[in-house]
Amino acid sequence: MAQENLSVVLHAKGDLRLDNRPVPEPGPDEVLLQMHSVGICGSDVHYWQNGRIGDFVLRKPMVLGHEAAGRVVKVGSEVTHLKAGDRVAIEPGVPRKMDEFFKMGRYNLSPDIFFCATPPDDGNLCRYYAHSANFCYKLPDNVTFEEGALIEPLSVGIHACSRAGVTLGSTVLICGAGTIGLVSLLAAKAMGASQVIISDLCAERLEMAKELGADFQLTVTREDGAQQLAKKVEDTLGAQPHVTIECTGVESCIQTAIYATRSSRQRRCQRSGHQRSLSLLQHLANGHLHVGVG
Ligand SMILES: NC(=O)c1ccc[n+]([C@@H]2O[C@H](COP(=O)([O-])OP(=O)(O)OC[C@H]3O[C@@H](n4cnc5c(N)ncnc54)[C@H](O)[C@@H]3O)[C@@H](O)[C@H]2O)c1
Ligand SMILES: [Zn+2]
Prior knowledge:
Elements: E1 6-12, E2 15-20, E3 30-39, H1 42-50, E4 52-53, E5 56-57, E6 62-63, E7 67-75, E8 87-90, E9 93-94, H2 100-103, E10 114-115, E11 128-132, E12 136-138, H3 145-149, H4 151-163, E13 171-175, H5 179-190, E14 195-200, H6 203-211, E15 216-219, H7 226-237, E16 243-246, H8 251-260, E17 266-269, H9 279-286
Helix pairs in contact: 4-5, 7-8
The structure holds nicotinamide-adenine-dinucleotide and zinc ion.
Pfam family, one: ADH_N
Subcellular location: Cell projection, Cilium, Flagellum
Organism: Austrofundulus limnaeus (Annual killifish)
């Protein structure tokens, strides 16, 4: 095994380095992974450019990366379900305690969860990385490492649609056709949504959304008013959408989502920590509270 472990380490805001770190030794319930594919998330870029996301502040060097797949090269003494050679996708969030959230099956809400590349926890944009074996999922032979790395962002879309109750015949507005908007689109269609309308400022992103199955694309400008956009959505669908999934983190889109969605239905905001003005809504979204009226 190569002894070097080149790692993409963020030392401070704007100070990204390629450091050689020791190859970690897996603990009893961990596996050592040779990393193969690691996505660059908007949050990695945000930490690099700003040194923080909301209350998560970089105070010591941290390895970036949390959308990842790799190959098991060594297993801890208590690991029985994985062996060297297995290809796995990584769930980057590992609960540290068996707290009330863990017991409810919602360990992702655990306040002291370990999460790759969220300060102070190291991520896996490196050559060798040790992770809890229970949070490594074996990939079938027909799923590539690259696809394995995309499972984490895909799960964001699946989670949003399932929390919002997207089901057969749902009509859905998705604000934003970036990565998260597109995975939400894929999930909504797979869960049976009959019509999905997706908005973005960028026509190229909407083209991609069309290729991935969006029924309607809405090109917007920053000058468009929230109520005006909500009306366009209603006119296009013939009725207000049952569900809106907000995937821009932009305040005006959250307003659009609130105006556009049919009464007593669901609006989902993808959590984001970018703008202080959104802190209350982010607090709600971080807590996965439903934003709804009536
Ligand atoms: N819950 C999670 O685990 C999770 C994970 C990743 C990202 N996020 C959040 O999801 C959001 C989207 O992330 P992303 O990685 O897809 O970002 P992205 O930057 O790739 O996509 C955002 C899209 O919104 C579009 N947009 C910007 N302003 C707009 C407007 N006024 N109207 C319509 N579209 C507009 C942009 O053109 C872009 O295509 C962010 O708020 C991010 O913090 C949440
Ligand atoms: Zn991510």
